[in-house]
Write a structure and sequence with these properties.
- The protein has a domain of about 45 residues.
- The chain is built from three helices and four strands, in the order E-H-E-E-H-H-E.
- It is globular.
Length: about 100
């Protein structure tokens, strides 16, 4: 069953441009090459500058698990930790009907 993984991330508004560039140049290319990753998108909140959702879809929970154990996942975490004031919350969803 496909899995949607949503990571809610906030950055100080003065770090938003850096966060977007970081995602486009470093994080997204690593994510989309993962086995089982069907798509990866970054959503920017229109009402709250600095608030984003990383929205990825996966073919299975097994693919997500393998990704979370990978060196690429550790690399993505390192890139995001380099942005001062970043906070995240990860949620996983499955299709109901």
């Amino acid at each position: 069953m496909p899995i949607v993984r949503m990571i809610y991330v906030t950055f100080p508004s003065d770090q938003a441009e850096l966060a977007e560039r970081n995602w486009k140049e470093k994080c997204a290319p690593l994510m989309i090459k993962q086995p089982g990753c069907l798509s990866e998108e970054l959503l920017r909140c229109k009402e709250h500058p600095g608030e984003y959702i990383s929205y990825s879809s996966w073919d299975s929970e097994e693919s997500v698990r393998k990704y979370l154990e990978s060196e690429d996942h550790q690399e993505i975490k390192r890139h995001n930790r380099n942005i001062k004031g970043a906070q995240d919350l990860v949620k996983n969803y499955e299709l109901v009907g």
